[in-house]
Design goal:
2 copies of one chain form a homodimer. The first copy, chain A, has 136 residues and is mainly alpha-helical. The first copy, chain A, contains 6 helices and 2 strands, in the order H-H-E-E-H-H-H-H. Chain A is 67% helix and 3% strand. Chain A is elongated and about 70 Å long. The termini of chain A are far apart. At the A-B interface, helix 3, helix 4, helix 5 and helix 6 of A face helix 3, helix 4, helix 5 and helix 6 of B. The first copy, chain A, binds a DNA duplex (30 and 30 nucleotides) through helix 2.
DNA sequence: CCTTGAGTCTGTAGTGGCTACAGACTGTAC
DNA sequence: GTACAGTCTGTAGCCACTACAGACTCAAGG
């Protein structure tokens, strides 16, 4: 018996590209179900854990928060009717992402302009510092 | 004597748009020098504090870390020779910002595509969840 | 002078999403 | 049997704040 024995945390880590400490952290905060344990207390992961962790990592890669991912996981497990909710979550997240992009673009413009002024003249004072020190 | 008496932390907060708790935090971590105190222990800020805090807030607005800002402040105080260093700092920060923008744009594309598929078909399964659950 | 109420004080703890230990134990290959 | 990599728990740190509790202070009005 016990033919398919599952894998240890290190193997799960290599397979998913997720740090060991992070895997344990996900378990602690309830994103990954607690796996079975060996006699000596080692975690033993099944293929379902691999799938779940990949889901989490992918969602993190898209910038979803752990809270949002918890919801997505519930929806994925939940079944029907979930699609509209998942879509809404993804859409509102997309709005966030676009907001961040435009914030960063504004930042980029301001920074680039500041740096550019260093090239322009050989002022007595530093344009970078001046820009940050402006009076109004 | 004591004609110009300085302002309290609340007034500094309104003037700079910086949270009171954040002002105290900046003092704690050495970004803002500790001001004089009233007999009762209230912080009394001078115009130099207003300028310094504005500098910090502006730099934060451009996404500099507190550590980078500490350096910028040293450079601003330090005087000559500082310009090249300040410029280098700003430039490397600009590289970071551009990196973040392109990461977010990739995210945006992937998210938008995922959401779009919800519109396309009336699949039995949710494209958002499917995308996150992919096997490879 | 006294009271009221807004302002301020210190200190501590929480946030998110990890990451980094220390010190003890386990599993496995030789 | 023993070496050594892997894993365990628990705690603390990171960044840049934010949010309290409970005590105190200051200015204005009566």
């Amino acid at each position: 018996m016990s033919r398919s024995s599952g894998i240890a945390i290190g193997a799960l880590s290599t397979r998913t590209g997720c740090n060991i400490e992070t895997i344990r952290y996900y378990e602690r905060v309830g994103l990954l179900p607690a796996p079975a344990r060996s006699a000596g207390g080692y975690r033993i992961y099944e293929p379902s854990h691999v799938r779940r962790l990949r889901f989490v990592r992918r969602a993190r890669g898209l910038g979803f928060t752990l809270d949002e991912i918890r919801t997505l996981l519930d929806l994925a497990d939940g079944g029907s009717g979930a699609c509209a909710e998942a879509r809404a979550l993804a859409e509102s997240h997309l709005v966030d992402v676009r907001g961040k992009i435009s914030d960063l673009r504004a930042m980029e413009t301001a920074l680039a302009e500041t740096v550019r002024q260093c090239d322009v003249g050989r002022q007595s004072r530093c344009p970078v510092i001046e820009a940050l020190s402006a009076d109004d």
